[in-house]
Amino acid sequence: MLPIVFSGKSDIGLKRAGNEDAFVISPELGLCLVSDGMGGAAAGELASRIFAETATEVFTGSMNRSGEETRELVRNAFNLANKTILDHSENNPEHKGMGCTAELLAFFEDGFAVGHIGDSRTYRLRNGLLKQLTRDHSLVQDQLDQGLITQSEAKNHHLRNVILKALGVNETLVLDILSGISFAKDLFLLCSDGLTDMVSDSFIQDVLSSKSTLDQKADRLIQSAKSAGGHDNITVVLCEVTP
């Protein structure tokens, strides 16, 4: 596995009373993740934390893994977290409706695997070009795909926060898993929608392409989202494959 450096930061934003996002960066396990809770108050925060803790536990002790093993671990992490959240909701009716979106990026040998559900996102900057690796599981994204609305209409759509898939919603989990080869200087961004609702992809590309450190880039992204309104919690995780 190529050496990788990580940075992560989460901010409550300017409008929310609490932070329902969670993130993990684990160089020793070769993984990072972001989860964004839903369901209100402590329930959303708990769902995010369940995913973060479950994924870390699933990957513990899994060094020197193959690509297939990594993809299976990603699948297991999401499935186990989904079941844990559902079981908690059943045993604690006051938390019914809790859930979270989630991104998990794990590295292996010469590649990476991403697990994705909801409208948090994973991007990759390669050779100065930013690519969104994941597709939002949202009503607005579906309308975009069908050509029913334009990109500009999607940005301010009154239903833009309607999520079609999340952890803790259904017993049967339909998960996106993608993988690829990683190269030196690849820079990955995992983030909650508190970032992408506030700043453009072109701005993100400019920040990630700058000569700043990873910590400085994470700080700049979060501060820019707050300057644009900070309507939600903002979580940013960066990881760079070093030469």
Characterization of the model:
The chain has 243 residues and is α+β, with helices and mostly antiparallel strands. The chain has one domain: Phosphatase 2c, domain 1 (4-Layer Sandwich). 34% of the residues lie in helices and 28% in strands. The strands form 2 sheets. Strands 1-10-9-6-7 form a 5-stranded antiparallel beta sheet. A hairpin with a 4-residue loop joins strand 2 and strand 3. The model has no long low-confidence stretch (mean pLDDT 93).
Specify the CATH class: Alpha Beta
CATH architecture: 4-Layer Sandwich
- How much beta, percentage-wise? 25-35%
On the 0 to 100 scale, the average pLDDT is 93
Shape: globular
Total number of helical segments?
A: 7
The name CATH uses for the topology is Phosphatase 2c, domain 1
Task: Classify the helix fraction into a percent range.
Answer: 25-40%
**CATH homologous superfamily placement:** PPM-type phosphatase domain
Largest sheet: 5 strands, antiparallel
Query: Which stretches are poorly predicted, pLDDT < 50 over at least 5 residues?
Result: none
- The N- and C-terminal alpha carbons lie at a distance of 12 Å
Q: Tell how many strands the DSSP assignment holds.
A: 10
Radius of gyration: 17 Å
Total domain count: 1
The topology string of helices and strands comes to EEEHHEEEEHHEEHHHE
User: By helix and strand content, what is the structural category?
Assistant: alpha+beta
**Biggest sheet strand line-up:** 1-10-9-6-7
